[in-house]
Amino acid sequence: MRFAIWTVVLAIVAVGVALLARQSDGYVVVVAAPWRIELSLNLLVVLVLAGYLAFHLLARLVEALVAIPARVRAYRAERARSRARHALNDALLAFFQGRFASAEKSAAVAMEGEESKAVAAIIAARSAHELGRFTEREAFLDQARGPAPEVDQARLTTLADLLLSQGRHEEALAVLKDLAGRDARNLRLLRMRHAAETALKRWDEVLATTASLAKLGGLSESEASASRRLAHLGNLQRKSQDAAALAAYWKHLPSELRADSAIAATAARYQLALGGTGEAQAIVENALEAGWDAGLVALYADCAGESAVPLIERAEKWLRTHARDPALLLSLGKLCMRQGLWGKAQSYIEASLALEPTHDGHMTLAALMEKLGKPQEAVRHFRRSAELAG
Q1: Contact 153, 179 (CB under 8 A)
Q2: pLDDT tens figures, 332-368
Q3: Nearest C-alpha neighbor of 363 from the set 352, 307, 355, 316
Q4: CA 325 to chain centre
Q5: Better pLDDT: 68 or 309
Q6: Alpha carbon distance, N-terminus to C-terminus of the chain
Q7: Which of 10, 46, 113, 211 is the most exposed, fewest CB within 10 Å of its CB?
């Protein structure tokens, strides 16, 4: 439609120009002694227009010739960029397919392009790492250095990740601490930091990192609880040789953690090893009040001091609601043995074995039979305990 309109307009203009030229009888005289040129006005107009058109075409031609080297350079640069982009795409595909040798080779080609150099170098470094070529990995990571902060962060994150996979936790943690100042809310970095701190048993730092991850949604509630439990167990172990430090740490633990059966059992064992039977007794009793646990009940028998009577009385109160708990019955039997209540001890131990025959139960009953002067019964229970142990 537009072509038809322009055709009509040009035809009208041509007709108008022809009519004007037909009616024009003017002329132009050009004198340059000894020459004299006389032209019609119409011819002069045509010559001027033709000259302008020729000059315009010549100028365009010169411009095009001058621009040829720049256009060639631009074409070559674009072809190089296109080659680098294709090589980078091939490197990514090969890396995620597990073809690390091919990925490294394609990434090396992609590094020739300035735009893709940093990313390609990181892919090449990861591929070299997977192939066990750590010297080449370091060289590629050095080539990934760049002025852009996001590129440097990607390089350092990759370095930390690869160091962690090698078990070089100290070096990885140093890199991660440097990165933490740049992006303290990065879940990827926090998870790697958590792994490094856990491996290095830096339990106070693990607790802080766990809190950050839980706040940002990087750990589920169960994962965060497990991490806190592990850290507190580690801290308790470090203080296990110092009764004052152990008691102080236990005192400052949140109540929900003091009620955790694993933490309570560990703290109680350390107190018992230091001779703190009273402290161990309090730890076990408070934890059992918060939640019943067979492991804690079994440990309760070891918490008796000079007199086991208070513990027997407390355990017999628990028996009202846990009458068929074999661990509680066995603990009562052991406590009665410590107090010299042989008849009650035998009754409780036999009741425990009737509910659940265990190695510990038969060993305890065998020891009781020896004290009662019944060697044949003792031998029979020793044999039974050995069978259960096997």
Answers
A1: yes
A2: 999 999 999 999 999 999 999 999 999 999 999 999 9
A3: 352
A4: 43
A5: 309
A6: 98
A7: 10
Largest CA-CA distance found in the chain, in angstroms, rounded: 158
Q: Would you tell me how many other CB atoms lie within 10 Å of the CB of residue 89?
A: 13
Distance, in Å, from the CA atom of 255 to the CA atom of 297, rounded to the nearest integer, reads: 19
Which of 273, 302, 277, 300 is CA-nearest to residue 289? 300
DSSP 303: G
What is the set of domains in the chain, with CATH numbers?
Answer: 72-144 (1.25.40), 321-390 (1.25.40.10)
In whole angstroms, what is the distance from residue 53 CA to residue 115 CA? 44
Alpha helices in 144-186 (DSSP H): 149-165, 169-180
Handedness of CA 380, 381, 386, 390 (dihedral sign): positive
Percent of the chain at pLDDT exceeding 70: 92
Q: What pTM value is reported for the model? A: 0.74
Q: Which two tokens stand for residue 241?
A: 């040789």
Instruction: Give the pairing type, strands 27-32 and 35-40.
Output: antiparallel
Residue 299's nearest CA partner among 322, 268, 278 is: 268
Q: Would you say residue 15 has pLDDT above 70?
A: no
d(CA 258, CA 45): 106
Which amino acid, one-letter code, is at 54? A
Three-class secondary structure of residue 107 per DSSP: helix
Ordered DSSP codes for 90-134: HHHHHHHTT-HHHHHHHHHHHTTSTTTHHHHHHHHHHHHHHTT-H
Q: How much is the average pLDDT of 282-298?
A: 93
Dist. CA 14–CA 8, nearest whole Å: 10
